[in-house]
Amino acid sequence: MRGRWTILAVLFVARTAMAVQFQSIAAIAPELGKALNADLADIGVLIGLYFAPGIALAFPGGAIGRRFGDKATVLAGLFMMLAGEALLCSSSSWSVQIAGRLIAGTGGVLLNVLMTKMMVDWFAGRQIATAMAIFINSWPLGIALTLVALPLIQAGFGIASTQIAVMALIGAALALVGFCYRPPGHSVAPASAQAARLGPPAVWAVLLAGAIWALYNVGFAMIFSFAPSMLVERGWSTAAAGSEVSIVLWLTALSVALGGYLADRAGSRNALLVASSLAFAALIALLWRGSPVPPTLVALGLVCGLPAGSIMSLPARVLAPATRALGMGLFYMVYYATMLIAPWLGGRLALWTGSAGAALGLGSAALMACPILLWGFERWLLVQARTAPQAI
Description:
Elements (H helix, E strand, L loop, with lengths): L3 H24 L1 H8 L3 H10 L2 H6 L3 H8 L1 H21 L3 H30 L4 H9 L1 H20 L1 H22 L19 H34 L4 H28 L3 H20 L4 H12 L1 H7 L1 H5 L5 H30 L3 H31 L5
Helix pairs in contact: 1-3, 1-7, 1-8, 1-9, 1-10, 3-17, 5-6, 6-7, 6-10, 7-8, 8-12, 9-10, 9-12, 11-12, 11-13, 11-15, 11-17, 11-18, 12-14, 12-15, 13-14, 13-15, 13-18, 17-18
């Protein structure tokens, strides 16, 4: 009988495969740009396209899972990821590259929405905080693995070999989910058929919470999407740059867990969110402006994960059980829309200034906006408490 920790391992591998596929463009961006005759803005478009389907699918993703089953939908998502990567490998045509990223991203959205729900099904009321911390860490660990491994594979065997490696990992995740995942033995209560309505204060609060999460991820993404290219501009090899930047991702696994622990025990989660976001922004700016690379990256890794737990606790302060599905759909729509635009904007800034480091400046600015948005969130929360206190 497969236990819940085995199920966690299966879902961890699947989400790691998604992270690897997302990061596979940025990890070999200098060589890929030459092969496709693409500039940094074009590469930014390819990176961001992975998130584009989320704008349309994040909201109805849960309903799709209820209609066809969680496992079947996740398997379909993995098949789409595999098909999209195969397209990327089959042709260097720009239109094929776009189609491949969109197809793969559609599969990734289905995984992102449904696997979180599957985790809750298995761990609700039973060490869910520990399990979710492990599950969330699959993303930074997958990106770190990509930054280390794919440049080495590309240097030894070419660009197509990196795409084959990504397909192999997705195939392994597909097999694991297909053969090892099963729903929990206890029954999971179905969602209410009666749609709950979010009042305007709750809508605005959820949208602001989603914007905070999105801008936090913009800061995070600018590091692993453009810092390797910035270091290459400064004379580093692609493999060395990717390996060095991966330090941030490896240490993030520790700082995310530490941040969650501190958020649960701190007198003010908001204070932790503000302080760590501003420290994160300052360290990105220092890296951009030429501070010593290794110690700055170590400090970034130890700080950048600290706000995550506090940010992800914000929607729970707004949403009652009856409005949670609708509210989280809005939350993730903001995230996906922002993450579609941000890599392109970072690439445009890099072209305009002549340096990939300008994208890190964008990431630093995004993080500095988080405390302002948090102030707005708290204001709308007060309005909601006065108009619908039962939703808190």
